[in-house]
Amino acid sequence: MVLQELGGKLSAALRKLQSTTVVDEEVVKAIITEITRALLESDVNIKVVMELKKNVEAKINRSEDASGASKKRLIQQAVMEELVAMLDPKTPPYQMKKGASNVIMFVGLQGSGKTTTIAKFAHYYQRKGWRVAMVCADTFRAGAFDQLKQNATKLRVPFYGSYTEADPVRIAEEGVEQFRKDRFEVIIVDTSGRHKQEDALFEEMREIQAAVQPDNCVFVMDATQGQAVADQARAFHEAVPVGSVVITKLDGHAKGGGAMSAVAATKSPITFLGSGEHFDDLEPFVASSFVSKMLGFGDFGSLLRELQDTNDPGMDPKKMMDRMTKGQFTLRDFYQQIQGVLKLGPLNKMMGGMMPGIPDTAQQKRFLYMMDSMRDDELDGKVDIAGNEKRVTRIARGSGTRVEEVQLLLRQHKAREKVVAQMGKSGMMNAATDPAMAAKMAQLMQNPNSRASQAAMSKMMSPQMLKQMGGRDGVAKRMREMGGMPGMAGGGGMDMASMMQAMGGGGAGAGGAGGGMDMASIMKMAQQMGMGGPPGGGRR
């Protein structure tokens, strides 16, 4: 994940707050100092940091009556809100219009990764079912058209360019006109990289903009420049109407925080973050989601949006969820889950490192090959394959895999099937999939220390689930513990490690007085579901 070092320092400061018994003025001052130091070390402008510090202190001082868990929650929420405000200029970015031709013109400095970013951008929308095309109007850099052509060919995206035409304005105009006639929905125009002082190239950029009339001008910016990018962004703003920004080279660079805060200060909305050379290495940027992931709380909202956007019309997730609430999980369900995960691209990135141990892409694809060699009755759970050695061997041969791999697939499916059956019986699956119940639980968590809220939460649970939580006392205890975590009483998400600790009462084997699930049990369940190591104990 990008800005991992900064995120680690910020989340460490918030963890110290969580473990502190008395939250006095000295503790608050020390935590805010630690947070401001981390931001300054990431090259965030000192004026921006001091503004954030002042706003956090003001929010805390306005609620002097708060104490204990409430004060911890208040401080965490204030820090998250101000980090989001630092990165969000409150300027809405251009919204793509499905069914219409959206002309997107990319501009940026030489060496910023513009042409690579264009390929990632094309892949992002292509994956979501948009008709995408690319136009190379960069006639200044040798090899620019070859690079775009190579990327477009790999992506199977139509492209337009010329080895003989020297006028970039004419190339851009002709290419856009052609793709508009062919009713492409996303038409991406690559322009020559330039420097602030190159007036001729800036004039060329203005001419291309006037000729193609783009719906959005995207400024591609190199994060390694740190807060110095503010001047660059302003220079491009003065030349063309920049509507959004993509920040590249964020993978692990110490100045990434400075670059992001500097661009936000120019009131340009950041829409994507680039990190890496692969086509999947482009993340949509939403300030609140980014801060949540950076602090280690994950980002389930982005995951759900991606699942909805990449959903296969041939799949019926409702039927699958209906079966899972009854404790049923077939190989066909497993197949659909893997298909959905593969369409998401780099899932670990999206989850902010919350789900380590997901089988790699190559392994998941081999699982699909194996299931493609199975009969319908086998996929639907009507026939047991595991005990039939001859059938396992035939599936391995038919899919070009090894017998051991088919056995691994069957073990992993059996482990997931067992967990789904347990969750179905306990009522936990219903709680996770019923929007009304989820909303009610969220409302009750607004007052986790209230006896009325604790009693209402207990009534919502099935007898099995209530027993698993350690009865009413166990529910009350866990509500109090979880109420002190970010996201449970407003704003942000939840740290999975903290959640497990709260559910387990503080560590492996620590069922606590409530008698609920211990840490080891939850980790085992996570592993079985593929979220904490090779599921089912199989080899990777």
From TrEMBL:
<dbReference type="GO" id="GO:0005525">
    <property type="term" value="F:GTP binding"/>
</dbReference>
<protein>
    <recommendedName>
        <fullName>Signal recognition particle 54 kDa protein</fullName>
    </recommendedName>
</protein>
<dbReference type="GO" id="GO:0006616">
    <property type="term" value="P:SRP-dependent cotranslational protein targeting to membrane, translocation"/>
</dbReference>
<dbReference type="InterPro" id="IPR006325">
    <property type="entry name" value="SRP54_euk"/>
</dbReference>
<dbReference type="Pfam" id="PF00448">
    <property type="entry name" value="SRP54"/>
</dbReference>
<dbReference type="InterPro" id="IPR036891">
    <property type="entry name" value="Signal_recog_part_SRP54_M_sf"/>
</dbReference>
<dbReference type="GO" id="GO:0005786">
    <property type="term" value="C:signal recognition particle, endoplasmic reticulum targeting"/>
</dbReference>
<keyword id="KW-0687">Ribonucleoprotein</keyword>
<dbReference type="Pfam" id="PF02881">
    <property type="entry name" value="SRP54_N"/>
</dbReference>
<feature type="domain" description="SRP54-type proteins GTP-binding">
    <location>
        <begin position="269"/>
        <end position="282"/>
    </location>
</feature>
<dbReference type="InterPro" id="IPR013822">
    <property type="entry name" value="Signal_recog_particl_SRP54_hlx"/>
</dbReference>
<dbReference type="GO" id="GO:0003924">
    <property type="term" value="F:GTPase activity"/>
</dbReference>
<dbReference type="InterPro" id="IPR003593">
    <property type="entry name" value="AAA+_ATPase"/>
</dbReference>
<comment type="function">
    <text>Component of the signal recognition particle (SRP) complex, a ribonucleoprotein complex that mediates the cotranslational targeting of secretory and membrane proteins to the endoplasmic reticulum (ER).</text>
</comment>
<dbReference type="InterPro" id="IPR000897">
    <property type="entry name" value="SRP54_GTPase_dom"/>
</dbReference>
<dbReference type="InterPro" id="IPR022941">
    <property type="entry name" value="SRP54"/>
</dbReference>
<keyword id="KW-0378">Hydrolase</keyword>
<keyword id="KW-0694">RNA-binding</keyword>
<dbReference type="Pfam" id="PF02978">
    <property type="entry name" value="SRP_SPB"/>
</dbReference>
<dbReference type="InterPro" id="IPR036225">
    <property type="entry name" value="SRP/SRP_N"/>
</dbReference>
<dbReference type="InterPro" id="IPR042101">
    <property type="entry name" value="SRP54_N_sf"/>
</dbReference>
<keyword id="KW-0963">Cytoplasm</keyword>
<keyword id="KW-0342">GTP-binding</keyword>
<keyword id="KW-0256">Endoplasmic reticulum</keyword>
<dbReference type="GO" id="GO:0005829">
    <property type="term" value="C:cytosol"/>
</dbReference>
<comment type="similarity">
    <text>Belongs to the GTP-binding SRP family. SRP54 subfamily.</text>
</comment>
<keyword id="KW-0547">Nucleotide-binding</keyword>
<dbReference type="InterPro" id="IPR027417">
    <property type="entry name" value="P-loop_NTPase"/>
</dbReference>
<keyword id="KW-0733">Signal recognition particle</keyword>
<dbReference type="GO" id="GO:0030942">
    <property type="term" value="F:endoplasmic reticulum signal peptide binding"/>
</dbReference>
<dbReference type="GO" id="GO:0008312">
    <property type="term" value="F:7S RNA binding"/>
</dbReference>
<dbReference type="InterPro" id="IPR004125">
    <property type="entry name" value="Signal_recog_particle_SRP54_M"/>
</dbReference>
<dbReference type="GO" id="GO:0005783">
    <property type="term" value="C:endoplasmic reticulum"/>
</dbReference>
